Amino acid sequence: MRYIDAFNHFNPPRYHEQVLESPLGQKDLGKRVRGIPALWDLGRRLEVVDMFPDYTQVLSLGMPMLDRLWGPDKSPDMAKLANDGLAEVAAKHPDRFAGYTAVVPMNAPEAAQKEAERALKNGANGIQLGTNVNGKPIDGKEFWPLYETVAKSGRPILLHPARTRAMPDYEGEEKSKYEICSVLGWPYETGVTLSRFVFSKIMDTYPDLKIVSHHLGGVIPYLEGRVAHSFDQMGARTSDEDYEGLRKSLKKRPFDYFKDFYADTAIEGVRAPMICGIDFFGADRVLFASDAPFDKEKGPGYIRSTIAVLESIEMIPEVREKISFRNAQKLFGLK
Amino acid sequence: MRYIDAFNHFNPPRYHEQVLESPLGQKDLGKRVRGIPALWDLGRRLEVVDMFPDYTQVLSLGMPMLDRLWGPDKSPDMAKLANDGLAEVAAKHPDRFAGYTAVVPMNAPEAAQKEAERALKNGANGIQLGTNVNGKPIDGKEFWPLYETVAKSGRPILLHPARTRAMPDYEGEEKSKYEICSVLGWPYETGVTLSRFVFSKIMDTYPDLKIVSHHLGGVIPYLEGRVAHSFDQMGARTSDEDYEGLRKSLKKRPFDYFKDFYADTAIEGVRAPMICGIDFFGADRVLFASDAPFDKEKGPGYIRSTIAVLESIEMIPEVREKISFRNAQKLFGLK
């Protein structure tokens, strides 16, 4: 079977140097990324890709939240550097890299829109976005011109979660404990951000906007019952905001927006959740992806386990092809 | 098939009067509960139960977080009133109510331990706990005597989620928007609270403690890959706390604690997540439950849909019996 890996991570060389020189890069982040050569060393990366037959990647940056690394004075240039670097790597190895997505400087919303426009014209196959900007939401009106640009392009947004430790899990605490913010908080925030795309009416305003949610929709598919029946009753628990009025003013049932999002298979190679997620989004909206190279082997681990899990699930050939590569071809505009 | 409904909600009459007289009861909460007669009207409740053949309920209070309704001066008496009321209703209709769980005043930790002891001696079949106390976590040392008491009793904790709107979903915001706190935040907080039971070492200290997580484990089963592989790497992302040392000092792999929790089937009657959750917890640790009467029909809706979903899933008879009633018999000490 042919596989196009829709969501995995790579930092092109010149951009990677800048990451290491950034304040965060000189601390924990630098230590962490240095330990994963397939994230930034092209030679090692090609070795990993070549371990799998008929397998190519659409490259995305290691982490789309440039706002964590640089202020708005520098982030637009860094985005450009990252995007041009990814374009160069992809162009040089089209047999291994089917395409790439671009990042945008979300702490400089106007520049973000412009960089999206530039990168998409330059051949980027999508835009990778974090679920927050320095901890703040991304559904504010200042970002709507960006969403309009992406919607018009026909290319997707790849939504990458992150939740800061500064968001505590209980009242009266200063930060999230035990790394719960990243283990459970990231997929939670994916769910939150998708919800805010719905209820802020971004999806009503830009119905052509295609959003691919990393990690098979975060928490959404498992919470199908609540997303359906509890959002149907939105307003019943609140008296200081007119959520009932808001719900009734939407063009569709809340649940239907969630079913219209896309999702990838990057859930660290587990089977039962994979079946649950595919059931939720359906054969036309799930894209094969590995999240490489963030496995314990630092490269091939999740590619191998994700393919193995998909192959263990019974599907008709048409569905298998859609998930493995055809949906990616269509969404990213690939051949 | 015989069904014992392990987690559903009822307020006994005298306690219900007190709820309506409480400050919250005079506002939104009162309006909401008044609209659901099967939550507090015994006659209506019996009608709902009688709609289903060979079906009984283990009653739990409408909402275990008495701390939201009363201060520590009053909550111990209110817990007693609730528990004695549930005991009375269950004793009067043993053909409909197989048992009941007790609540404890968590904003008065010593009284909570004492009330648990009293109620369990008085025949309560478990203790229902909220995932927070007035927004604060429940893994603090002040609650450990309570957990010791429950662990020794052999009866389970029924863990009920709630997340306050005061916990915003992003930095810089004052509260959660669009009721995301209850739709997605509740199952998220179930996951958080289970994690804190593990990493605070409550589970290492009281290995006999049995925790039944409402809504089929919250978000845990769908995040199986992260709960396994990401918690295995706990410490890698943090330098200001020794999480690696903590992880290594645990008696088991983090993942194994999560597999040892129990869970109920109360997920609003959806099929794919049901299969995913049963796969995660296994046949010995899933209990049939409906969350009645919080469906749109205000009574029978979730009972009917949950039974229908379970019957649509292929299982060997032994597994079906365990989930439908045998696990409940064992855990609650029922005949």
Quick description:
2 copies of one chain form a homodimer. By secondary structure, chain A is α/β, with parallel strands linked by helices.
Structure description:
The structure is a homodimer of 335-residue chains. Chain A is of the alpha/beta class and 335 residues long. Chain A has a single domain (3-332), classed as Metal-dependent hydrolases (TIM Barrel), CATH 3.20.20.140. Chain A is 46% helix and 10% strand. Chain A is built from 16 helices and 9 strands. The first copy, chain A, has helices at residues 13-21, 28-34, 42-50, 75-92, 109-121, 144-153, 180-183, 185-199, 202-205, 214-217, 224-232, 243-249, 254-260, 271-281, 301-312, 317-332; strands at residues 3-9, 55-60, 97-100, 102-103, 127-130, 157-160, 211-213, 262-264, 286-287. In chain A, the strands form 2 sheets. A 6-stranded parallel β-sheet of chain A has the order 4-5-6-7-8-9. In chain A, strands 1-2-3 form a 3-stranded parallel β-sheet, with helices on both faces. In chain A, strand 5, helix 6 and strand 6 (157-160) form a beta-alpha-beta unit. In chain A, helix 1 runs antiparallel to helix 4 (75-92). The first copy, chain A, is globular. The model of chain A has no long low-confidence stretch (mean pLDDT 96). At the A-B interface, helix 7, helix 8, helix 11 and helix 14 of A face helix 7, helix 8, helix 11 and helix 14 of B.
